[in-house]
Amino acid sequence: MMMKKNWIVGTRGSKLALKQTQIVIDELKNLYPEYNFILKIIKTKGDTLRDIPLGETGSKGLFVSEIEEELLNNKIDLAVHSMKDLPSELKTGLTIGAMLPREDPRDVFISNTFKSIAEVKEKGIIGTSSMRRKVQILNINSKVSVFPLRGNVETRIKKIEKESLDGIVLAYAGVKRMGFENTIKEILPLEVMTPPAGQGAIGIEVRNEEKAIQLLEPLNDANTFHEVIIERKLQSMIGGGCNVPLGIHAHIHGGTVYLYIFYAPEDKKPLLRVKEKAPINNVEPLLLHICALINK
């Protein structure tokens, strides 16, 4: 099959998005030195609504919709995303061509004063824009309050001092990729701070065309792909968006899938936290069981 020579790669303009896209482009250049991979920055709705907490936007695909439109209109050939930003249902005609090996999916606590969330004193303030993180932070330490926090990794870290915060919670993957690992005070266990579906994974979205899918095949990490597909399937079965505190993480080891679930709809209590496992070739009954627990 004849391949085109020039491939346009679309992404957001944030520092982290550009860093992740450069990782993808470097991998592609190593595989295909005869092709050109051209970066195109696309502004999304999420980039313009910087002062609104994510849970209040009421919009799915906040950081991807405009990029997907460029893909569907043949203005770009590949779209690089953080998999956690992609809605569980893709637009018709699009597919995930590959996922790179996943970085550590956990969240981390960063502070200039305290070594852990549990150490933060009464009336302390922790920053996050995520409802999922907010509920779990308060579950760890009910004495603190949560301050809404948006911005890139560097901006959020600087706001610890600027806003007089006692700490913030971010994704380990973004902190590491941006070179701020030395700021981490606590890596939060999956059982304590369950991440959202896809956290830590870089995905490449394409039109459902054989050339692009074939191009990306060598980049795909099968384990990451399988884990994230399971997470996204369960997310789709449960429903909800940024305003629903939902954490889903799948970890495959050997022939077993280990699933971590956190769910806390505001009108129901107590919080639901599940850790279950199932054979890799028979996950569906476990997903149905979790949905039944949530809808109880």
Could you outline the blueprint of secondary structure elements for this entry?
Elements: E1 6-11, H1 15-31, E2 36-41, H2 45-48, H3 65-72, E3 78-82, E4 94-99, E5 107-110, E6 125-127, H4 131-140, E7 145-147, H5 153-162, E8 167-171, H6 172-177, E9 184-187, E10 202-207, H7 210-216, H8 222-238, E11 246-253, E12 256-263, E13 272-279, H9 284-294
Structure description:
The protein has helices spanning 15-31, 45-48, 65-72, 131-140, 153-162, 172-177, 210-216, 222-238, 284-294; strands spanning 6-11, 36-41, 78-82, 94-99, 107-110, 125-127, 145-147, 167-171, 184-187, 202-207, 246-253, 256-263, 272-279. It is α/β, with parallel strands linked by helices and 296 residues long. Among the domains are: 6-100 and 201-220, D-Maltodextrin-Binding Protein, domain 2 (3-Layer(aba) Sandwich); 107-187, Periplasmic binding protein-like II (D-Maltodextrin-Binding Protein, domain 2), CATH 3.40.190. The strands form 3 sheets. It has a 5-stranded mixed beta sheet with strand order 2-1-3-10-4, sandwiched between helices. The chain has a 5-stranded mixed beta sheet with strand order 7-6-8-5-9, sandwiched between helices. The chain has a 3-stranded antiparallel beta sheet with strand order 11-12-13, with helices on one face. It is globular and about 60 Å long.
